Structures are given as structure tokens and as C-alpha cells.
Amino acid sequence: MTEVLIQGAERVLTMDDERRELAGADVLMRDGVIVAVGQGLETTGEVVRATGCVVTPGLVNTHHHLYQTLTRAVPGGQDALLFGWLKTLYPIWARFGPEEMRVSAMVGLAELALSGCTLSSDHLYLYPNGARLDDTIEAARAVGLRFHPTRGAMSIGESAGGLPPDALVEREAAILDDCIRVIDAFHDASEGAMVRVGVAPCSPFSVSRELMRDAALLARHKGVMLHTHLAENDEDIAYSQAQFGCRPGQYAEELGWTGADVWHAHCVKLDGQEIDLFAKSGTGVAHCPCSNCRLGSGIAPVRAMRDAGVKVALGVDGSASNDAGNLVLEARQAMLLQRVARGADAMSAREALEIATRGGADVLGRPDCGRIAVGKRADIAIWDVSGVESAGSWDPAALLLAGPTRVRDLFVEGRQVVRDGHVTTIDLGAVVARQNQLARALAG
Q1: Tens-place pLDDT, residues 274-283
Q2: pTM: predicted TM-score of the whole model, two decimal places
Q3: Which CATH class is domain 3-57+374-421?
Q4: Fold of 59-363
Q5: What share of the chain is helix, strand, coil (3-state, %, to 5)?
Q6: Residues 103, 410: contact at Cβ < 8 Å?
Q7: Would you tell me the crossing angle of helices 98-114 and 133-143 to the nearest 10 degrees?
């Protein structure tokens, strides 16, 4: 039996069904599960003092392209819109192989962990030179984060009117076969699972209508979730209307891409009818505010989505379009963008933090995560609010207004992944050094 007691937190933001905020509280974890929350708890196991700290559920990242940590700030793509940015980077990504995928995923997951993230999805949609989804799953096991990788794909290259170069597309039969392989090999449907696998054709402009439909049928046969990009910017909307004669939401609905087992990334340009469709069908959205700003895509209508009942979560998106993988900063950016668009009362710090924790878990179909409550998984972040970032703050629970952007301690399934601001599970310095070697080789 492994038991850890987080003791004496200044505030515990539970994100439980009552959204309780507990002062001077403790959290007891045993064998990966939260077994008690309250004051004066005791243990015979390890005690982690949380004086001067705020404790939250681990943050949940619902959209990422981990491989892109190898291509940050690439010249030629720094000031481009989505399609031009992709065309700059596709030839570079075509030179990746298994090591590039594994090392970049380790760096990206470690960066997420340091920002308080305990559960991350990943959308890997290109597999050059023998790379496989297995490479990123290996990386997640090494870092120790809970992982929801998705087997993405592109099947329509430039010669067939698509955006990606032909070298990066796959045969659709091979894509479906590999989806079956990775689901059978890695997907764990049980409560507390460390790895679940999703099916994720890249986008409507890089795969066929048939693959979208077949992928949905396969995913539902296997009992796994579906993910793709949708309505990301004006170019995306124009492509959908020109190629399919309809808006992206209608296209998704016609092909079986709505429902509680589906979540779409971005959704910056959803209109009122599409928002209502997503609300009624239980379809989730991964909001990526920093990436949307960087690529000039616009401000997603998150306030309207939330008010309509759409499940909204956060995603950092790829580090080639975000430049960072800091999820707590993503939550702050989400709050600020809604205020810019709708007024200072459009989104509170607490609501944005809820989207980043419980909201993300709900979108990924993980009600066992994203809350600090008895019986939930022991995925917990400890934030030191005694430092300069919070000095003078009257409300320590308002982390996104005046709080640290790096976690002090992080527990995943009750195991400590970050201690005193440092990753404990891997030699991060050595991994970063290897990452930089690989980036220099690609740049040369």
C-alpha cells in the first residue's frame, strides 16, 4: 500500500460537484485514489506539507501535437496564417523518425507537467520514416503522465487537391488497420487507466469523406473516442463550403462526428446553429487560445458555447503554433480573450480554472479525473503562492489572476512526477540537450 498525505494547504480548490474551496485542508491519497479530503487527516505514509500553497486537481490538456516541440519559432512560419504555416512545416516534419517523435513527446509532456498538467491527449497525424504512435506512448510512460494519444492520419496529398505533401499521406486501408493495432495494443477502458487511445483523422482538408465516416464507425465499434480539427479559421470555413457545400458542423454531423464520444479542436468559427448542435449532441470542444492568437485565427465563442451547454476544455495545441506548452497560462489566456471579446465579467478566474481541470476531464470522458473528491484518481497539483507572483494577493484561490505559472509538486495516480519544481521521473536536462541536437540537425 502506498499512501501520501498533502497536509495543511492554504486552500484546496476541489472542483467537486459542489465546487468546494477548503481552507487549511488535507488530501489523503492511497494506491492512486483520493480516500479523504478535510482537516486533521493522519497517515503512516509520506507527508507533503502544503503550507502557503493552493492545491488543485491536475490540469487536463485536450489537444496537442507533441512532435512539434522540435519545430518552435521556425523562420518562414512565424508570421503565417494556418495554411501557409502548415506548408512551411510539412517538409520539415517529413524528415522526422521514431527518435524525433519520442524525444519531442518527452519534452512536451515534461513541460506540461511543470505547468500542472496530469492528463494530456495528443494528436499525432503523420508517421514518416517508421515513426509510430507507440513512440509517444513510450514517452508518456517515462514521464509518468496520464495519456490519451490519438491515431491521426492524412490521406489526401497535394496531387489530389489536399494540403499536405504526398510523402506524408497514407493509404486509408493502412490507416484503419493501424488504428485497430494501437487500440488493441494500448487502449485501457477501465477506470483509472493510464492510457486510452482515440481515432483522429487530421482534418476535413487532409482526409476523404469516406475515411471520416469509416473512422467514426471503427471508433464506435471499438468503444474509443473521436477527435479532429474543425472550424479553425476563415480558410477552414471557406474550404468546407467550397469542397463540401456546407459548413463544418453540418459536415461533421452528416459523417457521424457529433456525440459525447467526439471532441473537436479549435472551433473558432462555429456559428449559432453549430453551437446548438454541439450542445444537444454532447460534442466536446478543445479550445486553444494561444495558438489561435499566434496564427491569427480569431477568438473562439467560448462564452456562447458554455452558456449553451457545450462541453469546453483547453488545449495548448502544438508548440510550433503556440511556442509553449504551459497549460496554466493557456487557462489565463482563455479567460482574458473572453473578457476582450465580451467584457470584464465574461469569464472569471475560477471558471477558467474549472475548464482547465474538470472541464478537460469531462471532454475526454474521464469523470474519474479532474476533481479532488473521495474515489477520484489522485492527480493533484500543488501551487506555492508564497512567492513574488502572489505577493499582495487578497485571494490565493484566484491563481489565474495572481499566481505561479510553474507547479511546485505534481502527483499522477498518487505518484510524484514533479517535486519542488523539478521533474522527478526523467533526466530532463539530458532530454532537452538531445532535443536541441535533433532540432539543429533538422535546421541544418
Answers
A1: 999 999 999 9
A2: 0.98
A3: mainly beta
A4: TIM Barrel (3.20.20)
A5: 40, 20, 40
A6: no
A7: 40
